[in-house]
Write a structure and sequence with these properties.
773 residues; mainly beta; Jelly Rolls; Immunoglobulin-like; 4 domains; eleven-stranded parallel sheet; eight-stranded antiparallel sheet; 5 helices; Pectinesterase_cat; Pectin_lyas_fold; signal; hydrolase; Pectin_lyase_fold/virulence
Length: 773
């Protein structure tokens, strides 16, 4: 049979391959090529469907269940079950059942899809006595139409581990049924399923990835072919095949270690790469092809509306492009802005309308942050175009062209704007040399070394020694940015004023799923995460006199988690006179962090992380009205502190206040909890000392169930809690927490030096009001 038939049916593949027997270390498998004779329908309907020459998949109608006729699921031994699943258009779920007793009792894993959503949810679920419990959920970027999701659930004792397309996502611990068969189940939608397998769990799944690439890309007809590095299990693949659902739109071939995609005509196609030995191991790419790039060669009478100005010199290399129109334009449905090098007409950047992928970081930096975001936006009467990270270089001339489809209803100097072509109409030259010294400046439109905060961070990461202190002075303004810092110590971001310097944008778990991490040159996928500012492998980062904000809303969100700051580092963080805003997960911290006279505002778990010690001193902790649930006051902290002896989250001489959220609703009285439990593998270490608490804090204080670590040196604790006027609070109604004595506070939590005594294997850290160099 052809591999084309196994995955796409009638689509064109680069070469044909023999059908495997039971690949992937499986001891039992069924590809439905001989029908569904090995399965029994216990509910609904299922039927094999021929997808192409010699291959069949199983179409399972909505609300149907199949169970294997063979009792192949071992009762005690570890094993995995795996299958490929493809949704057929409607919203619904499909489950792969690892232990099926009957329709009211099973355990399994599956996918939850919503058509048009950028995200799918992967679920480990248990049905017991007719009651469904979702043990774990994990959001991932949805695959393009016609692609299969390869779902695997591995069972070892009570441990269940979930994989998607070879990537380990999450695990859960749950007592299993003692017997059962394997099964397939759909709810609410029809699915096609294929290549069901069972095998030993120590045989890890294979994985193919496209380096630093998400699941979708926009191209234009006639462009140079797109080359994407392919890797398998972190190494170069030995034998893979490329395929396209419509090669007249976009063709795909393998050239060495790269997938090469060529756009031919406007339309949509799904491109994939699959292992020659195992069709369950595949990567997918949705390709949207727009019309050929063909801007008109014409001039406009308002050249001064361009920024940088036409013919400008000494332009920062991270410049933002702007055109100011007579009235607010409308963003078009497609097209691109392109930057060419003047010396040789080489294309250096293509900036598409809609979601784009940006690889953030210094030019020669090994690990970079890969994120999806919109780089072309309308702001008032201007279009703002942000080039991809680190595309322009010093002492070089460039010119800009704009596709006709980028804007609609745009008028420039009284003339309808239909795009911009030619070499001379919008050209500029970058500054001649790199900035020198330990102080860098950022200003959105005034004289400065950089136009963006990330441009200055790229310079610090790429040009300065790791241990060399650097201060980045940021002028007042709104900086619509995501930020990334990796591998550079002693960086200070110093704003001109706390409320005047606002850095941030909208980013959430539905846009860039997960907490995020940097990726190496061959790392598969795009996993830059949902935070505005992601920090990795950095020590002594100082955020001073500025505001970080994530404007994502919980209401209507496809992924409400949305950090303003993710300090994903074991080092030290200082935040002085700074503000942090979001609704859910506002700050996530690891390592050691000191927040002094700062504001942290949010609603759900808006202070959290797997940290060692975080001290919030003389700060304001503001609970915001929830845009998704006006009656909810949320949770201040979810602690996942790493060590039993670590202080965790300590609030000293701070104020717990409330205020309106993005929907302008305030927090109802008595609805906010001081903390809720973390994970069984971590420690619930939360302490409030001499803090003033407003009426939004629930009288019971701590959310049930109570902390799993409530011993003498752990759990949820407080001392000296007051109302907003300084009068002692009545703590008799508290549930699940403990009240400390003055002696206990004096022994370990009275000042910074005590809280951070465990830093550097007990050498300690005592941060000061000035930079601790």
């Amino acid at each position: 049979m052809k591999l084309i038939a196994a995955l796409f049916g009638t689509a064109l593949w680069t070469h044909a391959l023999a059908a495997p027997g039971c690949p992937g270390a499986a001891v039992w498998c069924d590809g439905f090529d001989d029908g569904a004779a090995r399965w029994t329908a216990t509910n609904g309907r299922a039927a094999p469907v021929r997808e192409g020459t010699g291959d069949q998949v199983l179409r399972l109608e909505p609300d149907s269940t199949l169970a294997s006729r063979d009792s192949v699921a071992p009762a005690a031994q570890p094993y995995f079950v795996e299958a490929r699943m493809r949704p057929l258009g409607a919203a619904g779920q499909s489950y792969l059942l690892a232990r099926y007793v009957d329709e009211r009792n099973w355990i399994g894993a599956g996918i939850d899809v919503t058509p048009g959503s950028p995200k799918v949810n992967l679920v480990i679920a248990k049905m017991q006595g007719g009651k469904l419990t979702r043990l774990k959920q994990w959001g991932k970027e949805s695959l393009p139409e016609k692609a299969f999701y390869t779902v695997r659930l591995a069972l070892a004792g009570d441990e269940l581990t979930l994989y998607l397309n070879g990537e380990r996502l999450t695990s859960a611990t749950e007592p299993l049924m003692t017997s059962g068969r394997i099964g397939l189940l759909t709810q609410g939608a029809a699915f096609e399923l294929d290549d069901v397998r069972l095998g030993a769990p120590d045989a890890l799944p294979g994985r193919i990835g496209l380096a630093r690439m998400n699941n979708r890309v926009a191209l234009q007809a006639g462009d140079a072919p797109l080359r994407l590095l392919v890797n398998a299990d972190g190494r170069r693949p030995v034998a893979v095949a490329a395929m396209s659902s419509d090669p007249s739109v976009a063709s795909a071939v393998i050239d060495g270690d790269a997938l090469v995609v060529t756009a031919h005509r406007a339309g949509q196609a799904t491109v994939g790469v699959a292992s020659s030995a195992d069709r369950n191991v595949a990567a997918w790419l949705g390709v949207s092809v727009g019309p050929r790039f063909a801007p008109p060669v014409r001039a406009y009478p308002a050249a001064e509306r361009f920024s940088p100005a036409a013919g400008a010199a000494q332009v920062p290399v991270d410049t933002v492009l702007r055109i100011r129109f007579d009235r607010p334009p409308v963003l078009g449905a497609g097209g691109s802005v392109r930057i060419f090098r003047a010396a040789d007409d080489a294309l250096v950047d293509v900036i598409n309308v809609g979601d784009e992928l940006d690889v953030m970081g210094a030019r020669r930096q090994a690990f970079k942050r890969v994120v999806r975001r919109k780089l072309v936006k309308i702001e008032g009467d201007s279009v703002v175009i942000r080039p991809h990270s680190s595309r322009l270089v010093y002492d070089s001339g460039y010119y800009v062209q704009v596709d006709p489809g980028v804007l609609k209803d745009a008028v420039l100097g009284g003339v309808p704007f239909t795009g911009l072509g030619g070499r001379r109409h919008w050209s500029f030259r970058t500054r001649a040399a790199l900035p020198q010294g330990a102080v860098l400046s950022v200003d959105g439109d005034g004289p400065a070394d950089f136009r963006t905060v990330q441009g200055a961070l790229n310079h610090a990461m790429g040009q300065l020694p790791r241990a060399a202190p650097v201060t980045i002075r940021v002028a007042n303004g709104r900086y619509d940015e995501l930020l990334y810092l990796n591998g550079k110590d002693r960086v200070t971001l110093l704003g001109e004023s706390r409320d005047g310097v606002v850095i941030g944008t909208s980013n959430d778990d539905g846009t860039n799923a997960g907490s995020g991490s940097g990726q190496g040159p061959v790392s598969p996928g795009a996993s830059g995460g949902r935070a505005v500012f992601l920090v990795e492998d950095a020590d002594l980062l100082t955020l001073d006199t500025l505001t970080l904000v994530n404007t994502a809303r919980r209401a209507g969100s496809l992924g409400a988690q949305a950090e303003a700051l993710n300090f994903n580092s074991g080092g030290r963080l200082v935040a002085r006179n700074a503000s942090f805003w979001s609704e859910q997960d506002t700050i996530q911290v690891k390592g050691y962090s000191w927040f002094y006279r700062s504001l942290i505002a949010g609603n759900v778990d808006f202070i959290w992380g797997g940290n060692r010690a975080a001290l919030f001193e003389e700060s304001e902790i503001r609970s915001l009205g929830d845009s998704a649930n006006a009656q909810s006051g949320g949770y201040v902290v979810q602690a996942r502190t790493l060590g039993a002896s670590d202080p965790g989250f300590v609030f000293l001489n701070s104020r717990l206040t409330h205020g309106p959220g993005p929907a302008q609703n305030d927090v109802p009285p008595g609805t906010t909890w001081l903390a809720r439990p973390g994970t069984p593998q971590s420690h619930d270490k939360v302490i409030y000392i001499n803090c003033r608490m407003d009426a939004h804090i629930a009288p019971a204080g701590w959310s049930l169930p109570k902390s799993a670590h409530a011993g003498a040196g752990a759990g949820w604790r407080e001392y000296g809690s007051m109302d907003m006027h300084g009068a002692p609070l009545d703590l008799s109604g508290r549930v699940g927490g403990r009240t400390l004595t003055a002696a206990q506070v004096a022994a370990g939590f009275a000042n910074r030096a005590q809280v951070f005594a465990g830093f550097d294997n007990g050498r300690g850290w005592n941060p000061q009001l000035q930079d601790n160099q």
